[in-house]
Design brief:
The complex is a heterodimer. Chain A is mainly alpha-helical. Chain A is built from seven helices and no strands. The relative contact order of chain B is 0.13. Chain B is about 85% helix and about 0% strand. Chain B contains eight helices and no strands. Classes of the chains: A mainly alpha, B mainly alpha.
Amino acid sequence: MPYPIFVCRKEPAFLPPLIYLMLRKNWWKILSSIFLIYTFTAGFLGSVPIKPILNETIRNLYFHVAMWFGMMIFFMVSVVYSIKYLRHNKPSADIYAMEYARTGIVFGLLGLITGSVWAKYTWGDFWSNDPKQLGAAIALLIYLAYFVLRNSLTDMDKSARISAVYNVFAFAMLFPTIWIIPRLVESLHPGGMGNPALDTKDIDSRMRLIFWFGAIPGWTLLGVWISSLRIRLHIYSLNQEHHV
Amino acid sequence: MLHSFRLIITLFKKDILLEFRQQYSFYGVLLYVASTIFVLYMAMGQPENRVWNGLFWMMQLFICVNAVAKTFLQEGKGRQLYFYSLCSPVHFMLARMIFNAALMLLMNLISLLLFILLLGSPLAHPYVFLGISCFGACSISLVFSFLAAIAARAQQNAALMAILGFPLIIPQLMLMMRLSTLAFSDVFQSGLVSIVLLLACFDIMVVLLSVILFPFLWKD
């Protein structure tokens, strides 16, 4: 058996076989688990530099910041698939775009929650109109609107095309937004206004190792895993409908 | 180049002509503007500068949603098919954007007049504010023109346009509000030139994106 997990009855006719094969490899799923186990153990047990105000909350770097990285990566992947859909009109690309956007929203929500809890203990409030918080809220609203748009259209082809157009437009508008808003509102967030962030003087090499070689790839691969499961489920259910 | 320019002008003229033929919808938006500002006047009286500014820009946003939505949503399927057979989507979209910007400019002038009449005028430099509000009205109308084109494809739903547009317009609206503080007092803030440049870049980007993406919405 070349693919031990999840053997579909019949490969869907409209999927390119290469992508289908890549969905079924195992090694990166194992890698993701190893990265995450490393992140959790080293992240919670390892020593961290003691900073005023931050103290132990600096460990949030492994979880909160990684969520944002994941979110941006998934939104980018989603847009790439939307462009692909517009260029080649393959239904599978649309499913990919949608599921990656969904995973991006989940990661964004988790990032917002972890960030708010962190802000409660360092800034004193869950929400303080920080530019990063505003940017995050705008990004989530935009992508939730994307799903409202999708669901308002019943014709599958039309829904795919129009939501792909909106996806590209919204993504192109989102980037300047994230760049503009910090110029309008003062930020307390690490990385802005001289606050500590990923600089060498703020986190030591141990933390950087866990962050770049544990948390970021671990969480991102987990997101890809979640998305690929959802994509397969989606395609499977489409095929079921097709066969009935 | 010249040919396509002439085409755009023709399409623009067609939009104006249509507007003259169907005056009820134009007066409808006008009445919307007047009654909303009147309600604001009843509710707020004559508010202070900050509130005045905020209300004015929110008003622009709602006027834009109504005025711009109208142009796309009132077109039936048959008429769209007719345009499809006549001209290219890029020309159509550009003409529509110019028309919407012109419509929004007019609405902007009327609403500014009504605001000053009813809600008082806290403006130290009215002409500066006039310039900024015209610029802002054009920017907002460009974004909403494209969103109206999307919403028109999706069940002709005006509420959908608000859902799609409001998160996207927040940064531009915030920049506009920041910029218009210039008109309220003599205090000069640094970085205002860069805000104007940023907004101009934003507008150019929106026009380019619409030109690239509209053909995909067009074919059905």
